[in-house]
Amino acid sequence: TQLLEQSPQFLSIQEGENLTVYCNSSSVFSSLQWYRQEPGEGPVLLVTVVTGGEVKKLKRLTFQFGDARKDSSLHITAAQPGDTGLYLCAGAPSGTYKYIFGTGTRLKVLA
Amino acid sequence: DVKVTQSSRYLVKRTGEKVFLECVQDMDHENMFWYRQDPGLGLRLIYFSYDVKMKEKGDIPEGYSVSREKKERFSLILESASTNQTSMYLCASSVTSGRAFNEQFFGPGTRLTVL
């Protein structure tokens, strides 16, 4: 079974702190996507990373795709309460059209 | 503004009832998906459709069926609801292109409770 494991599963931090969320697999992915889901809503796409080693920045969020394209990370600088939500990585393992979601990281940023 | 709508935000049904969850998208997307979301398990694909009247099983199709009679509408059917089908159900749509996958646009979800 091809899985995307995310860690940590839960994270509660104070406003202004930095954090990193990890997404790992034993499979190679042609690309990975990160979504954020807020309570009562469906997930919304944040970014797609395509090239091994790629780094993308979205304001205070930095996304990195591993060199071997088996893992990705999301780093948030100076977290704010508005960052609270469920973060999901997703992708299709290379050679397949089967799109899978990670197990999710639930982030709570306290004011 | 693109939109995926689901017929109900909350639904309570009894064991054995037939349940219909409706999803409509206004983006003319070819692909539509049904997922269920459970704590600690992420999103799991139930069924997807890449064209009208076409469907493919996902990872957990047992106990579910789907219908896609029109491009914009994708229905999930629980033939005989059971308590282990209590979950959040999410519908999504995406375009088809040369890539293996594209951004999925999600509806707000239907929280189904089966008593």
Any key phrases for this structure?
heterodimer; A: 111 residues; mainly beta; 6-stranded mixed beta sheet; 5-stranded antiparallel beta sheet; 11 strands; 0% helix; 55% strand; B: 115 residues; 52% strand
Q: List SSEs of chain B in N-to-C order.
A: EEEEEEEEEEE
- Roughly how many Å is the radius of gyration of chain B? 13 Å
pLDDT average of chain B, as an integer? Answer: 91
Q: Based on helices, strands and strand pairing, what is the structural class of chain A?
A: mainly beta
Which bin fits the share of residues in helices of chain B?
A: under 10%
Q: How large is the count of helical segments of chain A?
A: 0
Poorly predicted ranges of chain B (pLDDT <50, ≥5 residues)?
Answer: none
Tell me the Rg of chain A in angstroms: 13 Å
How far apart the termini of chain A lie comes to 40 Å
Helical content of chain A, roughly?
under 10%
Oligomer: heterodimer
Could you report the average pLDDT of chain A, rounded to the nearest whole number?
92
The largest β sheet of chain A comes out as: 6 strands, mixed
Strand content of chain A: over 45%
Q: Count the strands of chain A? A: 11
Largest sheet of chain B: 7 strands, mixed
**Low-pLDDT residue intervals, each spanning 5 or more residues of chain A:** none
Structure, described:
The complex is a heterodimer of chains A (111) and B (115). Chain A is 0% helix and 55% strand. Chain A contains no helices and 11 strands. In chain A, the strands form 2 sheets. In chain A, strands 2, 4, 5, 9, 10 and 11 form a 6-stranded mixed sheet that branches. In chain A, a hairpin with a 5-residue loop joins β7 and β8. The mean pLDDT of chain A is 92. Chain B is mainly β. In chain B, strands 2, 4, 5, 6, 9, 10 and 11 form a 7-stranded mixed sheet that branches. Chain B has a 4-stranded antiparallel sheet with strand order 1-3-8-7, with no helix packed on it.
